Amino acid sequence: MDHFSQVKIEGIRAIDSNPYRKSRVLAIQPGRINVIIGENGAGKSTLLDGIHALSSAEKLCSLQTENSISEATSRCTFKRGRNEVVIEFRQHGKDFFQYQDFRASVNGSPLTPGWVKIPKVCKPDANLQKSIALLTPYSKDVVYVDRHTIPNSDDIVADELNRLGPLLIGLASELDPSKHQDQFDRDKIARPIRFSTGQNKYRVYLKSDLDQASLVPLSQLPSGWVRYATICQAIVSANKGSVVLLDEPELNMHPKLQHKLMQRICELASEDEKNLQIFIATHSQVFINSKRWVEDEIKIYWIRDQGIEEVEASQDVLKRLGYKASDLLQTDGIIWVEGPSDRLYIEHWLDMWCMQEGRPRPSENVDYSYSLYGGAILSHFQAGGESDLIDLLKINRNVFVVIDNDNDFEFDCFGRPVPVKDTSVKARIYESVKSEGGAAWITRGYTIESYLVPSYRNIYFEEKAGKLLLKDGCRKVIAAEKYPGAGFAISERLVIDDLSKRIAGLYACIAAWSAY
Q1: 390: domain range?
Q2: Distance of CA 351 to CAs 68, 493, 505, Å?
Q3: What does the alpha-carbon distance between residue 469 and residue 448 come to, in Å, rounded to a whole number?
Q4: Contact, 339 vs 476, CB < 8 A?
Q5: How far apart, in whole angstroms, are the C-alpha atoms of residue 154 and residue 59?
Q6: Of 150, 264, 161, 263, residue with least CA distance to 222
Q7: In this structure, how many other beta carbons lie within 10 angstroms of the beta carbon of residue 326?
Q8: Nearest to 91 by CA among 17, 24, 22, 27
Q9: Residue 17 to residues 59, 69, 118, 264, 386: CA-CA distances in angstroms?
Q10: In the listed set 276, 307, 325, which residue is the last one of a domain according to the structure?
Q11: Measuring CA to CA, which residue among 208, 214, 176 is closest to residue 193?
Q12: 233 in any annotated domain
């Protein structure tokens, strides 16, 4: 089925329509993934309900404003494929508290026989049922999920929950299957939740008891799990090309589950999988992060008093949602480096390492960002501690510090850096970062430039008295900018000293910051 190419709402609920003043209109040209943000009562759910009304008698009844002006007409316009469907409402005579007038058209041709009287509250009514039946061909494959939705496939619910693995706290999936030789136990760890048709309950294997399953009804599973599984089950069951409406999917869900849900939606909605069009009304910072979606497929819309507009900049989205910078952790972690040339080298080496290992490339300013501490400034920092120094962990709890050796360290037989002098600021930072659970990289050579291919390094640097110094007239940033374009193979770039091992460690650290 075709996706919607236009949705336009006028005079519905709080989106007033008044013939005597300029009306407020919500009109969008949706893409494949559409995230709707705005304050409570702004109209996020109304936009979804307008689409859902094409197939839901309950929603069709409830769209019209209770005390609308008699001259005002409320209207929803939808373009889907070659069809433009318009549904309209107006006040119905003296008994307008119970009834309203309704009509529909397709491509300008009447679908209903003029205005028909339908109730304002869903109840058995011949006109209402006939109106919904007339709209059915144009509402095909619209899937709606809100807080009241109940899953209708217990087996899919179990499958989707089992995908969460160790996130199912307390269940067998938290266990390490390699420590269990019995294949039956391994199966229970892989699939701790199974539906029992005979018992009409879920058989749940706890990590504390692999011998016998507990019988648990759906209502007694954690609410976040149920919410996650309900949404996934609805999407899995949807036909290819469907339109899926998700009203506040984040309800009851821990941020880890929200990230997992986003990943699952991306997977299922992809063109190769189901080719779905998704509408999400949300307050969650997880779902509004455009860089977590496929960026060229997502549109973010902000509903406000004056109407609706598309928002592109992520920081603008956060501002309009009312988030302060201190409410968020910003990027997942910070890589602390001495200067801008260090960042350029690390970015290049990450590119090379990921390409060589076939790993997905982490995204700067999403999975990590950089902060510069500039040589002597490092003495003003600490990791944890009780002094008045600046605490790296208060800026972001996830840190990776890259430190030039500068002959302050030697390496033992295990490749571990050992401070040469106890008064070294770098040694203090290194030890405190490690003790607080952070990570640090002490360069094997004098500075980070020691990892450059020698023939390139010698163009800009020279060794004097055990130090690597910049040649007269050369600039460190220029050397760093030109290095990626130098004609060296990946194998030449990553084999110097412990560089490949250090980049692998950095990658593992970034992955741990972002892993759910």
Answers
A1: 334-514
A2: 60, 11, 14
A3: 12
A4: yes
A5: 27
A6: 161
A7: 7
A8: 17
A9: 19, 8, 20, 39, 61
A10: 325
A11: 214
A12: no
Residues 113 and 104: their CA atoms lie apart, in Å, by 9
Residue spans of beta strands (DSSP E) within 122-251: 142-145, 193-196, 201-206, 209-216, 243-247
Burial of 247 (0-12, 13-18, 19+ CB in 10 A): buried
**Do residue 60 and residue 87 come from a single domain?**
yes
| 325, 64 Cβ separation under 8 angstroms | no
Q: Is residue 280 part of a domain?
A: yes
Q: Bridge-partner residues for 118, per DSSP?
A: 100
SS3 24: coil
Residue 508 and residue 420 share a domain? yes
Amino acid symbol at 415: G
pLDDT tens column, 215-262: 999 999 999 999 999 999 999 999 999 999 999 999 988 888 999 999
| d(C-alpha 228, C-alpha 213), whole Å | 22
Give the whole-angstrom CA distance, residue 470 versus residue 366.
33
Rg (CA), the chain: 30
Largest CA distance in the chain: 98
Contact 236, 250 (CB under 8 A): no
Of the chain, the percentage scoring pLDDT greater than 70 comes to 91
| Residue 72, CB-side half-sphere exposure with 13 Å CA sphere | 21
Between 304 and 37, the more confident residue is 37
Instruction: Report how many domains make up the chain.
Output: 3
Q: Which residues on neighbouring strands pair with residue 87, listed in sequence order? A: 76, 104
| Residue 115, in any domain of the structure | yes
Render pLDDT for 99-143 as a digit per residue (tens, 0 to 9): 899 999 999 999 999 999 999 888 889 999 999 999 999 999 999
The end-to-end CA distance of the chain, in Å, is 34
Q: Is 421 helix (H, G, I), strand (E, B) or coil?
A: coil
In a domain, 147, yes or no: no
Which helix (DSSP H) or strand (DSSP E) does residue 301 occupy? strand 298-304
The two three-digit tokens of residue 212, written as one number: 């016998």
